[in-house]
Design a protein that fits this description.
By secondary structure, the chain is α/β, with parallel strands linked by helices. It is about 40% helix and about 10% strand. It has 9 helices and 6 strands, in the order αβαβαβααβαββααα. Strands 3-2-1-4-6-5 form a 6-stranded mixed beta sheet, with helices on both faces. The chain is globular and about 85 Å long. The protein starts with about 25 loop residues before the first helix and ends in a 37-residue tail after the last helix. Its main location: cytoplasm. Catalyzes the ATP-dependent 2-thiolation of cytidine in position 32 of tRNA, to form 2-thiocytidine (s(2)C32). The sulfur atoms are provided by the cysteine/cysteine desulfurase (IscS) system. Its cofactor is [4Fe-4S] cluster; Mg(2+). It is an enzyme of class 2 (transferase). It holds the Pfam family ATP_bind_3.
Length: about 300
């Protein structure tokens, strides 16, 4: 008998992907794992991400989110719910102190097909970005360009990223506060060249769940501060703001995310998004009897 995640309830202990080796046996962890699988599967289905037979380049940074992405996608494939080929990929960008052996060893020991690519984009970023400015924007563009190239070389149809619900929310507020536009990270995107999809299967998953999962699995998480990212970054400020709102009103993040999925163009003042010029009252059935009589007192 299979539950909503597609797994066999009676023999769960025997049916486990190597990425889940050493998983805690607690009820709490099993609920967490099932929730991650359920929410990831829901995002994949909601945004029609699957084309059976495709090959996905699963981008692995070594952070908690990408480990969670890798494990959950392999869980879905293990259960026969994801009919695509998965290739894990880590792009070593040459940051000082990056532990280059951690991910190759991790992936090899667990039998995960992978490609490790070294491209020293860090030196380029250091050269181009003025002192005191954040590296994130240029670093991301260089990383994305290399990942697109690798995907094409490997015959992949999709580049799969580990951005979760909170990333999507933070990007929305970054654009709102600093970019002057209503935009965020789409769960599914076609690149400018039109030959690759960019997918975010963790779009419905909370960051806190990724953190709990990676900690429980004791994955060798590599911190994202090797480049000396500043605490005063705009994204960190937005994250702090969302944390404060969540503390005051638990569940606020989920409510805001639902709002992003419930857009009413007619109630936003963007004339490119809605045809306001066609809103003309029909007076054909209007007559004088419909006008209230004003009496002087």
């Amino acid at each position: 008998m299979r539950d909503e995640t597609g797994e066999t309830q009676d023999h769960e202990a025997e049916e486990i992907h190597p990425l889940f080796r050493g998983a805690p046996g607690s009820t709490e962890f099993r609920k967490l794992r099932k929730r991650l699988v359920r929410e990831t599967r829901a995002a994949i289905e909601t945004y029609d991400m699957i084309r059976p037979g495709d090959r996905w380049l699963v981008c692995l940074s070594g952070g908690k989110d990408s480990y969670t992405l890798l494990a959950v996608l392999h869980e879905l494939k293990w259960r026969g719910l994801l009919p695509v080929e998965l290739l894990a990929c880590n792009l070593d960008q040459g940051q000082p102190g990056f532990p280059a052996t951690v991910l190759p060893q991790f992936l090899t020991e667990r039998g995960v097909p992978h490609r490790i690519e070294y491209q020293d984009t860090y030196s380029i970023v250091k050269e181009k970005v003025p002192a005191g400015r954040t590296y994130c924007s240029l670093c991301s563009r260089l990383r994305r360009g290399n990942l697109y190239r690798i995907a094409r070389e490997e015959g992949c149809q999709a580049v799969v990223l580990g951005h979760h619900r909170d990333d999507i929310l933070e990007t929305f507020f970054m654009n709102l506060f600093h970019g002057g536009r209503l935009a965020s990270m789409p769960p599914k995107l076609l690149n400018e060249e039109g030959d690759l999809n960019v997918l975010r299967p963790l779009a419905f998953v909370a960051e806190a769940d990724c953190d709990r999962f990676a900690r429980a699995m004791n994955y060798p998480v590599i911190p994202c501060d090797l480049c000396g990212s500043q605490e005063g970054l705009q994204r960190m400020q937005v994250k702090k703001l969302l944390d404060e709102w969540e503390t005051r009103a638990p569940g606020r993040r989920q409510v805001m995310f639902r709002a992003l999925m419930n857009v009413r163009p007619s109630h936003l003042p963007d004339p490119k998004l809605f045809d306001f010029t066609s809103l003309i009252p029909d007076m054909s059935d209007f007559s004088e009897k419909d006008v209230p009589i004003l009496r002087e007192h």
